[in-house]
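[Archive record]
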Amino acid sequence: QQDYGSLELDRSVQGQTLTIGEREFTRGLGTHANSRIVYDLGGHCTRFAAWVGVDAEMKGYTNSSVVFQVFGDDRKLFDSGVMRLATPAKPVNVDVRGVKQLALVVTDAGDGINCDHADWAGAMIFADVPLAALQS
C-alpha cells in the first residue's frame, strides 16, 4: 500500500535508477510516502538489511521529507528519523530471527506527501534455512 504511484522493483517510484545522493543501486524497492510493504517471513529469517533515503530524482524540490521504519510483528526494529533529499543514505541492519511478519513503512514525516520518493536500496532478507524450506 502506498499513497502515490506504485511500488517499483529495482527502480525508483518514477521508474528511474535507484539513487540516494550520488550513490546508485541496482536492486531495491522504490516507493513513496506513506507506504507499507509487508513480507511473511514465517519466523524463518535472520536479518533484514538495506540503505534508505530520498531518491535523488527529487533534485530541485526542497520539501521531500520521510521517515523509514521497520517493524517485526508490530514491534519497531528501526527508525531513520526524518530524512530529506540532502540526507545521506542510512544503513538498516536489523535482527529478524523469529519474526513472522516484517513491515517496511515510510511516513511523510508529518508534513504531507509532496515529493516523498523513498528508496529501500539494496534491500535483502537473509535466512539460515534452505530456500526449499521457505517455500513449503
Notes: The radius of gyration is 15 Å. The CA atoms of residues 4 and 92 lie 24 Å apart.
